[in-house]
Design goal:
Largest interface: A-B, 79 and 78 residues
Radius of gyration of chain A: 31 Å
Helix content of chain A: 55-70%
Oligomer: homodimer
Largest sheet of chain A: 6 strands, mixed
Structural class of chain A: mainly alpha
Amino acid sequence: MGNASKYLPFLQWCRVYDGAALTGDLLAAVIVTIMLIPQSLAYAMLAGLPPEIGLYASILPLVAYAIFGTSRTLAVGPVAVVSLMTASAVGQIATQGTMGYIEASVAMALLSGAMLALMGVFRLGFLANFLSHPVISGFITASGLLIASGQVRHILGIAGGGNTLPDITISLGRQFSAANPATLAIGVGVLVFLVFARRYLKRVLVGVYVPVRAADMMAKAAPILAVALTIGLADTFDLGARGVALVGAVPSGLPALGFPKVSLDLLSALILPAFLISVVGFVETVSVAQTLASKRRQRIEPDQELIGLGAANIAAGLSSGYPVTGGFARSVVNFDAGAQTPAAGVFTAVGIALAALFLTPMLANLPQATLAATIIVAVLSLVDFGAIKRVFAYSKSDFAAMAATILVTLGWGVELGIVAGVLLSLGLHLYRTSRPHTAIVGQVPGTEHYRNVERHAVITQPDILSIRVDESLYFANSRYLEDRIAALVAERSDLKHIVLMCSAVNAIDASAFESLEEINHRLTDAGIGFHLSEVKGPVMDRLASTNFLKHLNGRVFLSQHEATTTLRRAILNPQDNGLTP
Amino acid sequence: MGNASKYLPFLQWCRVYDGAALTGDLLAAVIVTIMLIPQSLAYAMLAGLPPEIGLYASILPLVAYAIFGTSRTLAVGPVAVVSLMTASAVGQIATQGTMGYIEASVAMALLSGAMLALMGVFRLGFLANFLSHPVISGFITASGLLIASGQVRHILGIAGGGNTLPDITISLGRQFSAANPATLAIGVGVLVFLVFARRYLKRVLVGVYVPVRAADMMAKAAPILAVALTIGLADTFDLGARGVALVGAVPSGLPALGFPKVSLDLLSALILPAFLISVVGFVETVSVAQTLASKRRQRIEPDQELIGLGAANIAAGLSSGYPVTGGFARSVVNFDAGAQTPAAGVFTAVGIALAALFLTPMLANLPQATLAATIIVAVLSLVDFGAIKRVFAYSKSDFAAMAATILVTLGWGVELGIVAGVLLSLGLHLYRTSRPHTAIVGQVPGTEHYRNVERHAVITQPDILSIRVDESLYFANSRYLEDRIAALVAERSDLKHIVLMCSAVNAIDASAFESLEEINHRLTDAGIGFHLSEVKGPVMDRLASTNFLKHLNGRVFLSQHEATTTLRRAILNPQDNGLTP
């Protein structure tokens, strides 16, 4: 049972399911459904797919996540960034509007789902950790800018394309004069309405005595209202005939179930982007889920989340959907509306299924500009210039990785952007730890404390040199330590002892261990005693398992103070001890 | 002057050059010349090049290193591992024995020299640090095995080839029956003689009252004796007619100077192997130079060494040589023979130049089996199975990187071997630091010390949780910390305060900083106080430059003990303080 409920988390909550939970879940499901319908249509368009694919991706994946996911309130489905990544990857293989494009997107969901599930089974959730926060934040900001600029053509009612900011800008510039006035009116109108709704509607409604909670929910329903209104306008004024691009006939009914067509060629072309989509989707899911869970002192299991998200994507792949992930906005709405368990997700799926069955005939006259405006308003909240400023103030090296991610994403597209960010942040981290902070330390007068000679007024001795290294010793910095000690010895001709203070050394790998052997060997040749102090328990265990302590020409002291006083005595009475090599 | 002597280190020693230094340098040069002649011929053969190229690579490069290198006693020239890497890389572009093959090897020297020099100018010496000791050691052992097995065919006098152990073995197996008895006799004879000379000759000579120093030097001259003897045998018994492969006519004279033919295609094919050769050669050079320098309390400058080694390789590229590096054996001989300054290298260059001018006619009848035996005996000292055992005992993760390096090098060649080793050791290091050791700590009774509850009998409190993290906080482990704290909070319903003890935290990057903000935010939501203790100076400076300390719902305590006692008091008297959020 314990294991079953670990891998099937719904077994934990469905046994204690009661009326209160049902009420909360049903209410949340209604609100999330209203929010998800326009979003699903819009993000499908962003991914270059027909609108029904967006609805399909919001049915079975939600049920699959409810069974395998560990978050009580996460709402999965199509999201903006992953839709853009899908468009960018699939666009390199097939042409938008073809059957091959749809098939590749569905295959992408299945492949990405399989990868996520496998990563979960093999507990590889830690891989997501190599996306640093500045890289993710920069990536999401750049993606938001790319997405918004890519939708401008739908607002203008012109052709165009491009996956990078320069391409999109050039394409817009060339076509700008062909803008369609009616489309522009619809697009700008919806934009203004949505921005107003997001910023002021709640306040206005509360002003006219609508209860706060209801006002909040009504403000969140603004996109579906915009959809209904612009369909009405298009009907009334026959906007299709005036050159306004409409969504067109959307087939009614539930998605067909089945295994997507996947050739080996397709698989090998999709494998790298599927991996990137999986990791980005997983990171977004975990951070949203973690944030919400902790508000109720609940827990999520990152590795089980991989399985949950993997199941959701496999379900998307088997039901003509495209890659899904946990969305931030919809999860917060779900949480605020009082969802208690993942059953809310199942109810939402039923709502979207009903929409796919009965609402699709009404969508034919929906202007694409409405969806574009929905996307723009949604993604502009992803753009976070404040984060760029904060990272710049906090750390120049993190900022470098962030700036590279943003520039490469805007200039060369999403895949290269995220890869550049990861490689640069790994490189900078390794560079930093490869030149660790080292300090020569001396005694704070009248105490047993030893501090950096450059920061404090301390007592040092000409023939005993104490060095503190503020980093674990491993291959990337072991040679640096050798060089540093060689340099310090070369400039001090009367040196008799070196003490390496290891209070900040959390680990010593095999390379660093050999470097210590080498340093010991060289210092022995030079007639200098080599000692360690304040070695941590696990590190000492490791050293004690080797011959190092036998080779060491000096001693290991429990404290730096003991080291200094003992060596001082040894220098004054060289006869009565074996400490001078 | 200071800057000039930094970039031209010979300015430092040539001003104080005296008779004693001259005597030491001249003697060392004679001995190293005698050692280098057979080695240069043999390693050129190993690289698939005519023997004179080996001599050319031992003339100007030595002069260039003497001007730009910082080691007083390093001897540069052709070495076994770099010769193998050259053969492997150039063999993929051109066929051995053609002019194109020679031209590509010379271009490789020039390219690798330019890379090294540029890396030196941009102070990129730290890149070599990413070759961990176990990876280098495994790589050298595997290269030694590859080289030795690749020479067996010369001892047997058969055709054959292959760059990987399986290929070489299959090739030997197919041709084995065609072995030439006379070649085999020469090859095995020289092998036995050289092994005897290396192990016992010095002892035997000392036994017959030869002075120790002279005996040592005579033992080192064994290879040139083998060369002379087997040339004599080949002359006397006309071994060439009996099917023994001889070196053949070697042109006399000094190398022609000039820029090698380099096309863009060739350049792009050589760039990756040239980089690998540069890094491997640099690592070998620096570790040899460092070891010898510290015996005399001298210093080497790793970044200047890059320039020195770069200049040597550029010189090789401009004088029909091939890639060179600092050799271990010859440098030790140079050091032991009493070389005082790099002038010894210049004198050695003169010696080799004389050999190229006057000795080459005698080399025509040198059996290739003699050179092969020289190589085998030289490289078997590179094979270090003891290191494999030691690394296995010390660290399983280092052993994994080492084993992968050895297996991939033997099975797929040198380039892939070293790349696999580097990637695996980086990956394992990141994996390790991504799941740092964390300990819940409690008070050691009667003291102000706080230790791991699992290692010590300590006092803890149910409503205050103190966690020590034994690693710097950065992007790869920041989410792990979030998860860990979320898990600890979820299992403790009566928790009021969490104290993060930061005594081992040497740095907090932007990701970890955001994680701390996030943890603080979540704990605030959950009604739990979040506190830090024992934050290091530089880390505190960084935190104080942000709003974090304002957001923090708890406090930063100087010591863990202060944290625990203050929070204890706060829980008992909730009125008179603001510590409970």
